[in-house]
Amino acid sequence: MKSLKIVLSISFILISCFSCNVLDVSPVSVITNNSFWKTENDAEGALNGMYVNLRAIEDALTAIGEQRSEIFQGGVYGTGGNDMLHNALSADQPLHTDWRIYYTVINSANLILKYVPGITFNSEATKNSILAQAYTMRAFTYFAMTKTWGDLIIRTEPTESASADVTVKERSPQADVFKLIKDDLDKALQLYPNNNFPTGRFKWSKPAAQAVKADVYLWTAKRLNGGQGDFTTALAAIGEIEKADVSLLPNYGDLFQYTNKGNKEIVMAIRFQDLDGAANNHFWRQWIIGSAVPANTDSETLKIINPVGGGQGLLVVTDLVRKQFTEDDTRKKASFHEVYTTDASGKSTFYTTLTMKGQGLITGGNRLFLSDIILYRYADILLMKAEAKNALGQDPSTEINLVRQRAYKENASKHVFVNGTKEQNDEAILKERLLELLFEGKRWWDLVRFGKAFDLVPNLQSKKGQNHLLLFPIANGVLSLEPKVKQNPGY
């Protein structure tokens, strides 16, 4: 019987392309447990491999995090098969990466958690940090998965055998998955030796683990009846993040510059970098292809897209979302550029958009889409804080206005938020998250958490009450390999 199989050596073979420590081991044809897990360098290599595996799922993470929402439509040449935005998912055509690639990340974390405790380190703090990062990675990945598919196969030991008693398992209830996630986060937070960020902010840290914790507890507060206790826990986690070296950048657009990676607003990102083996990330789909560039566009657009094209232009922002930005909101031009054509009489006509947040870098006359993928940043944390405070009956004005002050700058006085009812505040927070975090893989989860997916996604409005649609189908390819796994209801 075929089952989920994860190759042990993948994480370690890939480490040299992550611009970190390279393993110092004797040459062997196959990496095995007998030749590995001996030294501190082995542990560091495994850790780097875990982050390579995280990078491999960034496209899947961002797709499930926003493509089902109201923010995307097809570009000049359509969607190119990126059709989750139509919300016509099925087991035959799930339109997204199935869960096997996520279990690769979990397996890399499980290997670390199994073997690193047996390695002698020069510094116990270094050892604890590696274990903390593995616990955080496992929690983060299971959180993304359970929001997507609900009940999951829980794997807390590495898959090192193809034996059916190891690989063939039933799904566990979502409540058990969340218990594991929360337990892992508690273990991680006890192990991190300090509250510092690693250089570049692309590895898990104590503040980043607190961000995952706040995210998780907001979700369980609203989706799993966690109530006031979970909101309080989320708020406390955010308070710990605020003690770290983190702040809003003065200019919104500076956040996303390739030359400004790891800035003080970043809490956790997935690192992409030239010459380290990384392929273009998902922003490639949101940049115009050369053949679609109109000859009669303006000089500003031509300057922005030089060298011409480089992307695919398959996912562009919808008119519905584009028109919710006011002209005095600096986030508009920093998030997307509107392309217009001009006819012989001088009349301008809207044509398409370019996503400005992930422009990457230009080298050798080519654009490489290697901007970091931001998982958490401080403005996101502030709006989570506003959400938790509002749920607890506290005034969320301070946090909302901090985000707005940067967005509107000298016009901020025209956009001051004033505390209202809980419902009014939630509506304002949800919209602020749309404007602030557009294209950052947050929108679908925000809509589900706030209970607004069927209200705000046009092609779901006629399906209100069909709550099974909030989960994704399990791909038939997975079902054929996992005989004990049953399809989600409704698919």
Explain how this protein is built.
Residues 372-491 form the RagB/SusD domain. Keywords: Cell outer membrane, Membrane, Signal. It comes from Larkinella bovis. The protein has 491 residues and is mainly alpha-helical. The chain has 18 helices and eight strands. It has helices at residues 10-13, 40-56, 58-66, 100-115, 124-149, 164-167, 174-191, 206-223, 227-241, 299-304, 319-322, 330-335, 378-391, 397-408, 422-437, 443-449, 453-456, 476-481; strands at residues 72-74, 266-270, 315-317, 336-342, 348-355, 361-363, 366-368, 373-377. The strands form four sheets. Strands 1-3 form a two-stranded antiparallel ribbon. Strands 2-8 form a two-stranded antiparallel sheet. Helix 9 (227-241) packs antiparallel against helix 13 (378-391). The chain is globular and about 75 Å long. It starts with 9 loop residues before the first helix and ends in a 10-residue tail after the last helix. Residues 1-30 have low confidence and may be disordered.
